[in-house]
Write a structure and sequence with these properties.
It is built from twelve helices and 16 strands. It has one domain: DD-peptidase/beta-lactamase superfamily (Beta-lactamase, 3-Layer(aba) Sandwich). By secondary structure, it is of the alpha+beta class. It is globular and about 55 Å long. The N terminus is likely disordered.
């Protein structure tokens, strides 16, 4: 295996045209209480059809002008024959960055942190001098991925960790995998998507709050939004039902996905601020709506989340895409429909988006994945997402 089952370049991003921040005037209400939705049958049929022809499991939650609804199809655990329900926790993957960013921004609103302050103001450890960018990298650069710090998930040592190597432990150890490497470009100008940024933010959160970042994220975001059905970081002994993840990339027979839940757990253990959140589908919808409307953040801060910077990945992304402060433009993913939120990918894929013109928010996930950007499950997920979009925009 020359590449890990998780390639950070797989994270799909945003749109080619710059735009003004969307006015968030859709009302309040981040809580999700399932009720009747006129499109419930159509949405459930989309999930059922995709699951029956592929063997993958899907979960979906929507909240729009018509109502709120959640549904699921397929097996959460293939070996046990356990059917997936809307109560099963699903992996956020990189959607977690939205929660980590909101935590940082809550601390900024209270004056505990400053967006344009350098890392050296909050992290005093000597190892920071070894990092590309050193102590001068600002929190804003970390939040919007303009720090140009290389991504530790792209290193050979991280690939070995995913294969079972236990010699590395803790965020600092993984961050040190990129020490001595040059910056990927000039800082503060364009986006170089890197999980190293959010690992550093996790350390900053711990430094200023005096608490593990998991406690801080719950105290600052999940609890104020009334979202108990979320787990962060992943517990050693989960006390809730969760969807197992499956991969064709790790299987000797691409037609028969293998259980890759252990690899997912290893990813979550090290990528906590960048990708360690699990929650029910309805919780993800309530999360995005809560961050945008429930006065979790002040209005000026919410608008700063939509100050977009262009993303460039040579040879991967050929047209400019955009990233804000923990928030992504998703227009390109949704066929030009104005949208923002965050996608996530690891062993499989998740997607959280808000369509402001439609006053619609949805979360979609599949529990089976394959070779980045090339496999049948990747294409199936995109097709199901397009069908969901058609229903919501009809």
């Amino acid at each position: 295996m020359t590449r890990p089952p998780f390639d950070p370049r797989r994270r799909r991003l945003l749109c080619a045209a710059a735009w003004s921040p969307v006015a968030l005037t859709l009302g309040c209400g981040g809580s999700f209480e399932e009720d009747e939705h006129p499109d419930a049958q159509r949405l459930q049929q989309v999930l059922d059809d995709a699951s029956s022809r592929s063997g993958a499991a899907f979960a979906l939650a929507v909240h729009d002008r018509k109502g709120r609804w959640a549904g699921a199809a397929g097996l959460a655990d293939r070996a046990r024959g356990e059917r997936l329900t809307t109560a099963h926790y699903q992996p956020a993957y990189s959607i977690t960055k939205l929660v980590a960013a909101a935590t940082v921004l809550r601390l900024v609103d209270r004056g505990v942190l400053q967006l344009d302050a350098p890392l050296g103001q909050y992290l005093l450890d000597d190892w920071l001098d070894e990092m590309p960018g050193g102590r001068g990298t600002t929190l804003r650069m970390l939040l919007n991925h303009t720090s140009a710090i290389p991504d530790y998930t792209a290193t050979d040592a991280f690939r070995e960790y995913l294969r079972g190597d236990r010699s590395l432990s803790g965020a600092v150890a993984f961050l040190r995998l990129v020490r001595g490497q040059p910056l990927q470009g000039a800082q503060g100008r364009q986006v170089y998507y890197s999980d190293s940024n959010y690992a550093l933010l996790g350390l900053v959160i711990e430094a200023v709050t005096g608490a593990p970042h998991g406690q801080a994220l719950r105290r600052e975001v999940l609890d104020p939004l009334g979202l108990p059905q979320a787990a962060y970081p992943w517990p050693q002994q989960p006390a809730f039902a969760f969807a197992r993840t499956y991969s064709t990339y790790l299987s000797p027979d691409p037609a028969r996905p293998v259980d890759a839940s252990e690899v997912t757990a290893r990813l979550d253990a090290v990528e906590a601020p960048a990708g360690g959140l699990w929650a029910t589908p309805a919780t993800f919808v309530a999360l995005l709506r809560g961050i945008l409307w429930r006065r979790l953040l002040n209005e000026a801060t919410r608008r700063q989340m939509q100050e977009w910077k262009p993303l460039v990945v040579p040879g991967v992304i050929e047209i400019p895409e955009f990233y804000g402060l923990g928030l992504m433009r998703l227009d390109q993913e949704l066929h030009g429909e104005t949208a923002f939120g965050h996608p996530g990918s690891g062993i499989a894929y998740s997607f959280l988006a808000h369509l402001p013109r439609r006053e619609a928010t949805f979360f979609l996930t599949i529990n089976t994945g394959d070779e980045p950007e090339q496999g049948a499950y990747t294409e199936l997920f995109r097709a199901v997402r397009s069908q969901v979009l058609q229903v919501l925009t009809a």
